[in-house]
Write a structure and sequence with these properties.
The complex is a heterodimer of chains A (176) and B (169). Chain A is built from 5 helices and 7 strands. With 176 residues, chain A is α/β, with parallel strands linked by helices. In chain A, the strands form 2 sheets. In chain A, strands 5-4-3-6-7 form a 5-stranded mixed sheet. A two-stranded antiparallel sheet of chain A has the order 1-2. The longest helix of chain A is centred in the first third of the chain and has 23 residues. The chains are: A alpha/beta (176), B mainly alpha (169).
Chain lengths: 176, 169
């Protein structure tokens, strides 16, 4: 008889437990199938020097950060000082200017600073699709062989830099 | 914040379990964005129409590519149409999408270790529920006794019935 009262209670708390876990998950953070794989290759016009090309091969040889951004993306603006911070720590930063116009993007850099070593101008968003981009800003960390080791969707925060990006970057620097 | 989460999980738990829980509004199908796609053959048209309904838009996660107005969905629709016009098969397009966005883009996810619970969980719950129901019913039936009345009980029953007949007569 007691079972009749205990069972619904157990079911209730099991459900509450599931919902508790569910509420702490970020539905926008999807696991990227690209982690552990070689980064997609591209050959794009450089944003600031339209006559030169920026190819994915340029990012090889050293661990590097690849940041997808756009001038229309408000979070990218908030994130921007973090990239400068990373640049000061010695991390090479490459950019992908995603579905933007050149004049808007250049104005953005003039106004908020330019921490990038090179920026690919991906006007059509096709390179973004190859990289599985769906929510700017997105940031990838690659090892010296061009294998993607880490991906962050959304704004980089000081915590993410301290706890994830910099430790992994130092580790990747040690790897041969 | 943590207290809010406790409260929220409790309320959600109550809402789901209570019989008078809030009705979830069903959103009807939205009109496909007007974007003329011209294909050479009907098969190409058919596989395009199938794909844009089975692939999820990763920006607005509960919409498929045909329903979504996100710029990325438009890009992906265009990309899919280009691939199909170039002669790609349906599974090649699906592979292309999964390689970039993961299994999440599939509205019909593949059956593997991480999705067994998703695919077979409801069936397992159903089996458990039916087994429980059967067991409870079986137990209840075995509780019903059909023992014959004793002599005293028969006597009492007759008296009661007689009283009743006299009363109504």
């Amino acid at each position: 008889m007691k079972l009749r009262f205990v069972l619904p209670l157990v079911a209730f708390f099991a459900l509450v437990g599931l919902l508790w876990v569910g509420l702490s998950l970020d539905p926008r953070a999807l696991p990227s199938p690209l982690i552990g794989r070689e980064a997609p290759t591209f050959d794009l016009a450089e944003l600031r020097e339209p006559d030169t090309r920026f190819t994915s091969a340029e990012m090889l040889g050293k661990p590097a950060l690849f940041n997808v951004w756009a001038s229309w993306c408000v979070t990218c603006r908030q994130e921007h000082p973090m990239l400068a911070e990373l640049r000061r720590s010695g991390v090479p930063i490459y950019g992908l200017n995603y579905k933007d116009t050149r004049s808007d993007a250049l104005r953005f850099l003039a106004r908020y600073g330019d921490p990038y070593d090179a920026i690919g101008f991906d006007e059509s968003g096709m390179v973004g699709i190859d990289w599985g981009v769906y929510a700017t800003p997105e940031t990838f960390l690659m090892d010296r062989h061009g294998v993607i080791r880490f991906k962050h969707i959304g704004m980089i925060t000081p915590e993410i830099i301290e706890e994830k990006i910099l430790p992994l970057y130092r580790q990747l620097e040690m790897e041969s | 914040m943590s207290r809010n989460r406790i409260l929220a999980s409790l309320i959600l738990g109550w809402a789901v379990l209570s019989p008078a829980g809030p009705a979830v509004a069903q959103s009807g199908p939205t009109a496909p964005p007007s974007e003329p796609m011209v294909f050479a053959t009907e098969e190409q048209e058919a596989s395009y129409q199938k794909l844009v309904r089975e692939l999820r838009c990763t920006v607005c996660q509960n919409q498929n590519l045909i329903e979504s107005n996100a710029p990325l969905a438009a890009d992906l629709r265009r990309q899919i149409s280009v691939m199909i016009k170039d002669g790609a098969q349906t599974d090649e397009v699906v592979e292309y999408m999964v390689a970039r966005y993961g299994d999440f883009v599939l509205f019909r996810p593949p059956k593997n270790a991480t999705t067994y619970l998703l695919w077979y969980g409801p069936g397992a719950l159903m089996v458990i529920a039916l087994t429980l129901l059967g067991w409870i019913l079986w137990r209840r039936r075995s509780q019903v006794t059909t023992a014959p009345l004793s002599l005293e009980e028969q006597e009492r029953l007759r008296r009661l019935l007689d009283d009743d007949n006299k009363g109504s007569a």
